[in-house]
Design brief:
Number of helices: 13
Helix content: over 70%
Radius of gyration: 19 Å
Order of helices and strands: HHHHHHHHHHHHH
Shape: globular
Length: 278
């Protein structure tokens, strides 16, 4: 698969770092957030470029076809692949129709409900950290979301500063420089959530909204690992040197994310069902 590892290797690596039900529930919400956010962004980019056909969506369409074409040949269970394809198709058709504020609020609320609900339902796999430790970490998600609104109001989007392009370019340049600093992962995720959201509010450049959502999804996944004491994938890659092998693993992780996440959840559910019947 181009420059990445095989599906089998990606699945094994994902399962090794995503064991508990709480972590998997959080990643399920992140998966939906990511897919819909991706196609929301692609829809905006399609509006900015010439299209070969009237009302065409060349970037969105090619992305959906290629992504589905990569996922179908994997050896994942049919129900897993079908679910992944359904998610991509739903996002392709409906992502741009969801109001942005509702989209983000559902993601934040869904994430918190998934974590707390799974922690209650799966008593054998409850979060080991004391309640007073993991709840504040969980609240980082809505905390950063609402903190970004303290700097400016969404109702003034694009009306405060005329040079929207300068804001967008400046934000992207700053994040690029930040990514080149030592141990950038945590810094760039938090900065990306806040700065892209603030830049969107001030400039009205909608692509920055979805870029902020991408960083928010990464933050959610980090929180999942933080409260379950399971090492985060990107952090693991960084600790191992971030070489060509780690890059190939991360590339496969991103491309196969729908299938490897859903297959891991599918296997987890089957294991739990079999345990109940013994």
């Amino acid at each position: 698969m181009f420059a990445g590892e095989s599906y089998h290797v990606a699945l094994k690596h994902f399962k090794d770092g995503h064991v508990g039900a709480v972590n998997l529930a959080g990643h399920f919400v992140c998966l939906i957030f990511c897919i819909f956010g991706n196609f929301g962004l692609l829809e905006l980019l399609d509006q900015r470029i010439p299209q070969p056909l009237q009302n065409g969506r060349i970037l969105s369409t090619l992305s959906a076809i290629i992504w589905i074409g990569i996922l179908i040949p994997t050896k994942a269970p049919k129900v897993v692949t079908a679910s992944s394809v359904a998610m991509i198709c739903l996002a392709y058709w409906y992502a741009s129709l969801i109001p942005k504020v509702l989209f983000e609020q559902c993601a934040v609320g869904g994430f918190i409900i998934a974590i707390i609900g799974t922690n209650i339902l799966y008593k054998s796999e409850k979060i080991e950290l004391p309640f007073s430790e993991w709840v504040p970490k969980l609240l980082l998600a809505p905390g950063l979301y609402y903190a970004s609104h303290l700097f400016s109001l969404s109702s003034y989007a694009g009306s405060q500063i005329d040079n929207a392009s300068a804001i967008a370019i400046g934000t992207l340049c700053f994040l690029t420089v930040l990514s080149a600093t030592p141990n950038p992962i945590k810094k760039i995720v938090v900065a990306g959530v806040l700065l892209c959201r603030i830049a969107y509010i001030l400039s009205g450049v909608e692509e920055l909204f979805y870029l902020s959502c991408g960083f928010m999804s990464s933050l959610f996944q980090g929180i999942c690992h933080l409260i379950t004491n399971e090492e985060a994938t990107l952090i693991s890659h960084g600790n191992k040197g971030g070489g060509q092998h780690e890059l190939a693993l991360e590339y496969a992780h991103v491309v196969y994310f729908p299938n490897i996440a859903l297959e891991t959840i599918y296997d987890k559910f089957n294991q739990a069902s079999q345990s109940e019947h013994k």
